[in-house]
Design brief:
With 142 residues, the chain is an alpha+beta fold. The chain has 6 helices and 3 strands; from the N terminus they run ααβββαααα. The chain has one domain: Sufe protein. Chain: A (Alpha-Beta Complex), CATH 3.90.1010. A 3-stranded antiparallel β-sheet has the order 1-2-3, covered by helices on one side. Helix 3 runs parallel beside helix 6. It binds zinc ion.
Length: 142
């Protein structure tokens, strides 16, 4: 597998037009993560209403993988309950670490990131937005 395969079309599409992307003001930041080995940086704002994730906005700077992952993660998150999100986040991270098979449940876009597993240095690029969202939800739950 080469880098071209890593940056397959679905990832590039999310990278070029990331869903739920936008500036996040300091006062809105619910979680922030950095991936020093790659230079990726994400800031998240989240809105939870009636135990549903009503809105997500992410400000992502970094590689195509990290921005695409944040786009896919946000697309998945909206409309889910925080518990649903946490279960899928854990399954995704375990899949990326090679600890578990991925049952995509129709989430083909997210599955596109599984190719990143062949590049261990890049795994955090794909997982950090899921970690950030879990942190953001802990705050929103309080
Ligand atoms: Zn990266």
């Amino acid at each position: 597998m080469d880098l071209d395969a890593l940056y397959q079309e679905v990832i590039l599409d999310h990278y070029r037009s990331p869903r739920h992307a936008g500036a996040v003001a300091d006062a809105e930041v619910a979680a922030e993560e950095v991936n020093p080995s790659c230079g990726d940086h994400i800031r998240l704002a989240v809105e939870v209403k009636d135990d549903r994730i009503a809105g997500v906005r992410h400000e992502s700077h970094g590689c195509a993988i990290s921005t695409a992952a944040a786009s896919m993660m946000s697309e998945f998150a909206v409309g889910r309950t925080p518990d649903e999100f946490r279960r899928t986040a854990d399954a995704f991270v375990a899949m990326m670490r090679g600890e578990r098979e991925w049952d995509s449940q129709g989430m083909e876009d997210v599955e596109a990131l599984s190719g990143v597993r062949d590049f261990p240095m890049r795994i955090k690029c794909a997982t950090m937005c899921w970690h950030a969202m879990k942190k953001a939800l802990e705050k929103a739950d309080r």
